Amino acid sequence: MATRTPGSKPRMVPYKRPRLPEALAGERARQFREDMATRRSVRMFSDAPVPRRLIEEAILTGASAPSGAHQQPWTFVAVSDPRIKRRIRTAAEEEERRSYEGGRMPEEWRAALAALGTDWPKPFLESAPWLVVLFEQVHGWFPDGSVRKHYYARESVGIACGLFITAIHRMGLVTLTHTPSPMRFLTEILGRPRNERPFVLLPVGYPADDCVVPDLQRKPLADVAVFIEP
Fold first, then answer.
1. Domain segments of the chain as ranges
2. Domain 57-207: which CATH class?
3. pLDDT block averages, 10 residues each, the chain of length 230
4. Among 30, 113, 139, 180, which is 20 to 30 Å from 197 by CA?
């Protein structure tokens, strides 16, 4: 529900950040970059339990993302119930099987995924102790029940997803961005309202003892950045 009436302005408060010496700022940035460079998408999860408190912290981090008009158009649904995880796996695998084997997925796309060793079976949807489904709120509601338009909702939810993944990594956990298509079954299984649309499904846990990942290399700075300077 909206907490302000249309057109009202929030109370403004002072904001300051300490200006770090260049060397310290650079060192912090380097350490963070090197840690994030070890992040990998994982499909082999341990069944070791993960405390709910850690999931809550990751969600709060994701929910600190900037959003269009500060409308915060996201809902994180965290599932640890084995029965619900089983239903999600069954539905996701059916959609994935149709994509891989039923002709919905172009051959070029299947070839690209085959290089990473992916296929339609998704056992991690049960082995991971948590499934976190991030929903995009296409619109919200005013206190009187009228529709409140959300601006740049999809972009805002994408940023929230990135912060959530970063928080998971920083806690020593792993995850995977899973986007079975279509994802309407998540709305139905999780009983979400009509103004919410599934954005991504994130299994969360610790890596299995025998976990392996592809030996991938990321593009260098010269391939991902352009600097325009005087």
1. 57-207
2. alpha beta
3. 59 94 98 97 96 98 97 98 98 87 74 75 96 97 90 97 98 96 94 97 98 93 98
4. 113
